[in-house]
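# step 3/5: fold
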Amino acid sequence: MSPPRETAAGPDKGTGPAVDARVTRTRQDILRTTLEVLTSQGLDGLTHPHLAEVAGYSRATLYNHWPNRTALLRDAFTWRGAGEHSQPGGDLRADLIAELTMFRTEMQRHGLDRALAVLAAVTAFTPELADVRDALVTDGERVNRALLAQVFQGDELDAAVLMLTGMVINSAVVHGQLPSDDLIAAAVDLVLRGRTGRRLDAPAGDEDRLQ
């Protein structure tokens, strides 16, 4: 996993007593291992005894920080976050393609698709994790939503965001393969064409339905 936001693994700086660096390192090691086990072995492999063995810490250490699996999952996903985002450059089509490509990269490098699939399944019978799921979704969709808000609003904006982010997730989770560059570009063009009436990289002409 790529290094996530460090403050999520423990108390924020300046909000309480200083946290021992060894404690912080231990928590981060275990949370990192939690996500690795989760993406490689699924939820069944995520037990305190097995995780203690894989991470190289005692069971007592795990139970001291996380008395149950729900607490462990909450901290692991909060620590992980939704991953890196692209930096918009001012071209709507290119920016959307870049952000979806970065989303795909997070799945390819760090198993984000498998982690999200597990979180979605766990949330179905552990509603206490719904806020963690919602926070990840909000963060994950943040850049795409801001970009699409330039041309959509209301229900159309929500639909456009779901179409693009959902395409990447559906391709990875349901079809078992990440979307190609061509598929990402086609999805972006399809969504934007619904608003502009033409491809964003095509010259304007008589076929442009927006005047």
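# step 4/5: annotate
The chain has two domains: 6-80, 92-196.
# step 5/5: archive (pending)
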